[in-house]
Amino acid sequence: MNRMKLKSLFIANALLLGAGFMANAQAETNTQSGNAALIKQGEYVARLGDCGACHTVAGKPAFAGGLAINSNLGTIYSTNITPDKDHGIGGYTEAQFSDAVRKGVLPDGTRLYPAMPYPDYAKINDEDMHALYVYFMQGVKPSAEQPPETDLSFPFSQRWGMRFWNWAFASDKPFQPIGGASVQVNRGAYLVESLGHCGSCHTPRGFGMNEKALDSSDSDFLAGGSLNNWDVPSLRGVAHWNEQEIVDYLGKGRNDKAAVGGEMTSVVENSTAHMTDDDLKAIAAYIKFLGGNPPVPAEDTQKASATEAKLTAAKNLSEGERLYLDNCGACHFVTGKGAPGVFPQLDQATIVNAKDPTGLIHTILAGAQQPSTARAPSTLAMPGFANRLTDEEAAQLSTFIRQGWGNNAPAVTAKDVSEVRKTLTK
């Protein structure tokens, strides 16, 4: 009996040890699986926040910083946000990481400039912030890259002054859902107002270079602005596009009427092209929900037809009309309508009718290239004409485009073109 009891006791202990081992192994597997899910979620949140656009430089490790950001204060360089403990954020606790992202305050008390859009990121919820932290600590490869130090002139070099700027212009209020709006609209509102930080470009700036509004409760929010002299259109309602056209523009970088250019090229390439269909539709629904833009005026068909007829006849052309046929007509056609989903239309286009012609002039001189995205892999490019057109010729061409068909914008001068030409990268 004693031997039988000992044998039974040994077997029981072995079973208990085995069960404990299996439980521990299962717990470890569950933890790893949970971390993998969090890392994946955090990677998607980083895409929503477009972190890579500012913190990754071509030819350098991902998120290693060093991008030169031109501002009215001077040049600001993005920081290394890899988990390297000496050069990046590897030593940050989650609370310190959250303070840097939401409040613009580093662990040592250094205050960030709002080129880092922390006034918008303040609305990121705790779940997304946790996933973002796990991703950067466990899903990003550490890099010892040391970006250049930001060194602005006095008084902007005094970062302690940002404490007062934050007090006057920033907010620590969490995201507030819109009462009475649908779940889809509120998802879009959350994405636009927080991670998407769309207001940092599309909301007008105040005297302190602050966003005049941080959410949809103020009519200034997303009402349009200016970035490096490019007119940034209002997103309130986008009366000239339907929801699907908004989805296509963000997801593909093009729709049947327009193609991305300027800073939006990077936004699409690094962020919105990676969003789910549901999130793109939510953003479109929110933008349409906002309203506020005046309805698109009825097309002046008589004027548009007159332009088309004159270009078709190709007789008694002005200098601008001749230049259009020689350089632009093959893709944008005598109708100015382009080819849906391929070549953007010029008739009634926002960039064409902008108060400031910088965007149009820059596109004519430097050209443009649509990004390759999963939804639209083909890369379509427009050549630049800086070496082909003089300042006067580019001005005449721009003026024709801004005043042909249904367009009605002020003329462009050779001086306008000269100023834009000086900004081109050689």
TrEMBL record:
Gene3D superfamilies the UniProt entry points to: Cytochrome c-like domain (1.10.760.10)
Record-annotated Cytochrome c domain positions: 37-140, 183-291, 315-405
Principal localisation: membrane
Molecular function terms from GO: electron transfer activity; heme binding; iron ion binding; oxidoreductase activity, acting on CH-OH group of donors
Residues making up the signal peptide according to the UniProt record: 1-27
Subcellular location: Cell membrane
Binding annotation for heme c 1: 51, 54-55
UniProt remark on cofactor binding: Binds 3 heme c groups covalently per subunit.
Name of the protein described by the UniProt record: Cytochrome c
Top-rank taxon, per record: Bacteria
Entries under PROSITE patterns matching the protein: CYTC
Keywords of the record: Cell membrane, Electron transport, Heme, Iron, Membrane, Metal-binding, Repeat, Signal, Transport
GO cellular component, one term: plasma membrane
Binding site for heme c 2: 198, 201-202
Organism from which the protein derives: Rahnella contaminans
Cofactor(s) the protein requires to work: heme c
Binding sites annotated in the UniProt record for heme c 3: 328, 331-332
